[in-house]
Design goal:
The protein is mainly α. It is built from 14 helices and eight strands. Strand 2 (32-33) and strand 3 (39-40) form a beta hairpin. The protein is elongated. The N and C termini lie far apart (118 Å).
């Protein structure tokens, strides 16, 4: 029952009319709690139940004298649609409102700035990997694919910012398609991070030759395995949460667990991979100084930094920032920074700080400089009018005439 909920809400719950008695021998809805935290008591089928609005939600205080409504269907199941439209936020003091408005504007600027910088740096990294054919080993191909997923994800993020409130409310098909593609690239981000960990674990812990690894297997894991996950999520959204372009802001949507579950599992497996990799590097490879071992060590350093970063960023969605203003504002800034600058960190660690990439780029630059210098010297030599060869040729020509 909801006696504890009513006791905590005190006057707000007491003012509601008493719930009609429930005939436990007939059809009725069981007691349940929704994603917002509102408790719904056992109710006879066909009844419309009123409960007090939540006191706090997403850091906003609401008027608890208003009510939220939910219907118990004739078949004894709660309606998926809950009417929270009567819940109104309490008007804050003008000063507090202005402070929050300033914070939201700054957070929006951070998001746009971070995604813009990340996308620009990611494109540069993508072009670098595209041009430097000499470093296209399997390890760098994996880095290249990870960078590609971030470029596509950020591009879809910008498209989603163009969706206005009216389209969002109408739940347009193209809007749902954009949300679906965006979520697909979000999932591929984490699966390519899993491929990074899987590659290193196979090469270092299992001592499996990298020459025997098949590229198509990693491509299948990174690009294909997320597809059935997204298809299942689309089916769930279509039948149970087909509203607001499938991009609701309520934390804890049941259908979103279809995506969140595999992602959390991938993160946990990657942490296990990293634990084994670090253990091997600290014991068996400590005395080794071969170039291959050094590359593995650098790759592990990068993934040790990036994996917790990506994991913490995603797990933040499950954390309640709290009711006080300071913790909520800190949560907004921290989460926005990590979300928007992920691609920047990926590019820095896997491209610009990659020893192989820097060496290959340096050689390419020196080769271009040498070719350019040679072309300049040849052009200058060909442009000298008093060249002995040209004078002799003209003399011979005149003599013949």
């Amino acid at each position: 029952n909801c006696s504890l909920f009513d006791a905590l809400h005190g006057p707000a719950a007491a003012r509601l009319p008493p719930a009609p008695p429930v005939d436990l021998t007939g059809v009725y809805c069981n007691s349940t709690t929704d994603e917002i935290g509102t408790c719904w008591p056992p109710t006879t089928a066909g009844q419309l139940v009123a409960r007090p609005c939540p006191e706090f939600f997403n850091g906003v205080k609401y008027n608890t004298t208003r009510s939220v409504y939910r219907e118990c269907s004739e078949n004894g199941t709660w309606a998926s649609r809950i009417n929270y439209s009567h819940c109104e936020p309490l008007l804050m003091e003008q000063k507090t409102f202005e402070v929050y408005e300033v914070h939201y504007r700054i957070v929006l600027i951070i998001n746009y700035l971070g995604h813009s910088i990340s996308t620009a740096v990611l494109i540069v990294a993508f072009v670098v990997f595209l041009c430097l054919r000499s470093i296209r080993c399997l390890r760098n191909v994996i880095h290249w694919n990870l960078i590609t997923t971030f470029i596509l994800r950020n591009t879809l993020w910008f498209l989603m910012q163009m969706i206005d409130e009216e389209v969002h409310e109408r739940n347009e098909p193209w809007c749902r398609l954009v949300t679906t593609i965006y979520n697909y690239f979000v999932v591929t981000n984490f699966f390519w991070m899993f491929v990074e960990g899987c590659y290193l674990h196979t090469a270092i812990v299992m001592t499996y030759s990298t020459d025997k690894m098949r590229k198509w297997k990693f491509l299948f894991i990174g690009w294909c395995i997320p597809c059935p996950i997204i298809v299942a999520w689309v089916i769930g959204k279509l039948y149970y949460e087909n509203e607001e372009c499938w991009f609701g802001e309520v934390v804890g949507h049941r259908m979103d667990y279809i995506i969140q579950g595999p992602v959390v599992l991938v993160l946990l497996v990657n942490f296990i991979f990293l634990f084994n990799i670090v253990r091997i590097l600290m014991t068996k490879l400590r005395a080794s100084t071969t170039s291959e071992t050094m590359q593995y060590r650098k790759a592990v350093k990068a993934i040790l930094v990036l994996l917790p970063l990506l994991g913490i960023t995603y797990i933040l969605f499950f954390i309640d920032p709290g009711k006080d203003d300071i913790s909520y504002v800190a949560f907004l800034y921290f989460n926005s920074f990590l979300q928007s600058f992920q691609g920047f960190f990926v590019s820095v660690f896997y491209c610009f700080l990659n020893g192989e990439v820097r060496t290959a780029a340096r050689k390419r630059w020196h080769r271009w400089q040498d070719n350019h210098t040679l072309r300049v010297r040849v052009a200058r030599a060909m442009s000298i009018p008093t060249s002995p060869t040209r004078v002799s040729f003209q003399s011979i020509k005149q003599t013949g005439v």
